[in-house]
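Annex B.
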Amino acid sequence: MKLSTVFAFAAGALAMPTSYSSEPLKNNETALVDCYIFNLTLPEFLAKREAKDPPSLNWTSDGCTTAPANPFNFDFTPGCQRHDFGYANYRKQGRFNIRGKKRVDEQLLVDLRNQCKKVSHVWSKLGCEGLAEAYFFFYRSDEFGGGHDATGHVNPGLNAMSLKAVREKKGKGKEAEEKEAKEEEEKEKEKEAKEEEAKEKEEKEKVAKEEKAKEEKAKEKEAKEKEAEEKKAKKKKAKEKKAEERKARKKEVNERWEKSWLRFWVPIIAPLK
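Prokaryotic phospholipase A2-domain-containing protein: predicted structure tokens.
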């Protein structure tokens, strides 16, 4: 078997949708919408759409009326209906961003290619696949969703947009991605700057706290030293006072002795001992 045949078979297998049960997801509309877009086969999706199951989802569709003309009437309406379903409910759920839109657009290409497999004539099939690519690039070229998609979100000036106008707008998605990346980078820088500022503030507060603690410790030490000096001075003063009192008492004793009559008898009595 040729290598190209193997790759072709593998690509076809990946593109083929598989049957998927959506019953366990009834209470989770976000997961349910993704299941309907990416997991159900197109016939299964159309059955759900016909039954409006569940009615809480947005089932409106205009069938890709703003896309390039379909002169050979290839059966693109089912794929377009699922595409509109994706746009409408992603908007409803607040998920209609660059990444979400890209996923829905890529599923449109898968669905249209699968529809082209029903075309029997080889040249018609090639034409069908070429138009499927044109539809895909039409929606990928318009960052905001291509005109209107029956969801009430109309982009002025896009309803009558030609393929030429779309080509002129090519690259807007990239610009938006770059802008988003730049904004994210700026936010990250701002966050880092704030964190750095908070860190510096915390460091300053820590240093100030340490300085204050040192000052309080120094004051405490100074107060203790002052208290010790006052205690020492008080002790010294008490000692001096005591010495003065002793001296005063001694003086008083001497004065009394000088005045005492015994002073005269001591020299007489002392030799008699």
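Residues 182-260 form one domain. The radius of gyration is 50 Å. Further annotation is deferred to the next reporting cycle.
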